[in-house]
Task: structure prediction
Amino acid sequence: MRSALHALAAAAATLPLASLPVRAGQIEEAKVGLNLFSYQERDGRIGVLSPTAWVQAPVGRDIDLEARMTFDSVAGASPQYVSNDGGTIIHALSSASIREWRKEGALKATRWFGDDSLSLGANVSSEHDYLSQTLSADGKFEFLNKNVTWAVGASVTGDAVGFTGFPTIHEKRTTRALFTGITQLLSPTDILQSNLAYTNGRGYFDDYYEYTVSFLGRRAFLHRDQRPDSRRSLAWLTRWKHYVPALGAALGLDYRYYHDSWGIRSHMAEASWHQPLSTDWAVRPVIRYYTQSTASFYNTTVASSSGVSSSDTRLAAFGAVTLALNFSARFGDRDTVEMGTGRYVQRASWRSGGGSPDLPRFDAAYAMLGWTRSF
Amino acid sequence: MRRYCLSIISLLVLAGCANVEPWQRGYLAKPEMAFDPNPATAIQMQHMYASKEAAAGGYGVGGGGCGCN
Result:
């Protein structure tokens, strides 16, 4: 009887189920997709319209190729300076509406060696005053009867920074990154992933378009944004997915801890619930909470026109909440349509222990529409 | 750094404790159990967050830089 059970188990292990993509695995069918992402900040600030086209396909038996192209159209007013004129801190926007375009292309090739894989990737992002180029390599290795996947990777990014109106200024920044992570099957309904990512950047980090104007007594100081010329960061992300058979639904919980050499500490927690409504329709509400402390050089008032200091609100202390609702629908065997909308809100008071005083409210809304066809 | 290494080692130890057989992975293979149901959307969301927040990363390697942050 025992040998019969063993034979049955061995036969079951060879079923196609064993190779189903429990984690990101070898591409079994070609797919093409189009996504349209729309983002709008309130009070006349930045709006972005971002179409993306992507394709992934197996090439031969052991090689997969993935390619993606994104085109961002950006318009609106952006933060320009912070002043204490009149006795209160004012975060002023640029008086003229900006108009920018960003093009991004990404290519990745993966070679499979049985269940293990090695990938090489390249990414280029281009704006009229910014060029970013990344090369990356990563590997995924299966262990313990494919209960464990170990991922390891590295990348190097070279950024070239220019400035509108200052054609002779060219700055550079290089960022090296290391990544490792483990994905573990915990039970027939639970899967856990934990990743560590380390970055080490050197070069130009300033935002030349932003400055701080401070009036102290009879003296006035104008200080252009100036940051350290290096930044090291560590992010630890843990993700858990749990399937609820009674409801046919999946719960997702993510948590990330982050800290960097600028003194910023951050926590992020996200929960999602993927609920099928019928055989073809599903809904996925998402709630996300994010909080961060200030960078050690964040100041909204300066007493000097030089030195490391920034009033960029992204370096302030605040809390942020995202509420989102996503729907997906299958049409036949080949087509899937996804749509979603969400709202992202930042408040200084939403940070546990209090955020940066005088930080303006920030509200944004986004919507996305995506179509995928399988071949 | 030491506590992160310890955490990874703990996960490796945990890995040795659980064994889900191939025929028990039907639920885990469902599309809704993917960490990112739509990778293109996930990239756009991470890009949006990276342009408004100081922290980023942890999802993998290969993302490019951007003048927005």
Remarks:
- The first helix of chain A runs from residue 2 to 13.
- Chain A has one domain: 43-374.
